[in-house]
């Protein structure tokens, strides 16, 4: 079993839709959670990070962590064609290594 | 501007040759990482370094080597022993937060290596 599971999609939505991206994890020691956006042939760009359970909002993006269920989500409101990319979840445990999901490919159709 | 610079962006290698990928950061981060990204497999850790002159093997270190002589630099050498080196290589760095645990990772723009 992989330590981080992420549905690869692809996910296709119309412009303006709310997008929900999710990851599950198996290691209860994970305590730092991140979401990255990666455009084709580019490096991942950090979108959001959080330590704790609950919601964190930044503009159109909301990161949600449920440690009891070992489940994290990223919501994108009012999705735009420029949001079309691959989204990676990432986690860090008690050590200094990061664990990444395989990424979800998102296309926002104008 | 602060950031991580990887060079070159594209690299072609003949079979049997060693090649070195450059990674430089000016974020004053202590930790640096090398990942390999293949379609459908996500990011796999090759090596990481928490401090100068020290580095640890990741999950797929065979056929790769690194050095960390300066805080700013963490070059990766892909040796001829790496049987399937064609991939997208990403360098990242991270600062040490509370209790010495690293905070979020920042990435360079990647190097695409192709064996010809």
Explain briefly what this protein structure is.
Chain A has 110 residues and is mainly β.
What does this 3D model show about the protein?
- The complex is a heterodimer of chains A (110) and B (116).
- Chain A is mainly β.
- In chain A, 0% of the residues lie in helices and 55% in strands.
- In chain A, strands 2, 4, 5, 9, 10 and 11 form a six-stranded mixed sheet that branches. In chain A, strands 1-3-8-7-6 form a five-stranded antiparallel sheet, with no helix packed on it.
- Chain A is globular and about 40 Å long.
- Chain B has 116 residues and is mostly beta strands.
- Helix content of chain B is 0%, strand content 50%.
- Chain B is built from no helices and eleven strands.
- In chain B, strand 5 and strand 6 form a beta hairpin.
- The mean pLDDT of chain B is 92.
- The interface between A and B is medium-sized, with 24 and 28 residues.
Distance from first to last alpha carbon of chain B: 35 Å
Instruction: Please give the oligomerization state of what you see.
Output: heterodimer
CA-based shape of chain B: globular
Q: So how many helices of chain B?
A: 0
Helix/sheet category of chain A: mainly beta
Average pLDDT across residues of chain B?
92
Rg for CA atoms of chain A:
13 Å
- DSSP strand (E) fraction of chain A? over 45%
H and E order of chain A = EEEEEEEEEEE
Helix % of chain A is: under 10%
For the report, how would you describe the main beta sheet of chain B? 7 strands, mixed
Helix content of chain B: under 10%
Number of strands of chain A: 11
Low-confidence stretches of chain A: none
> Greatest contact pair?
A-B, 24 and 28 residues
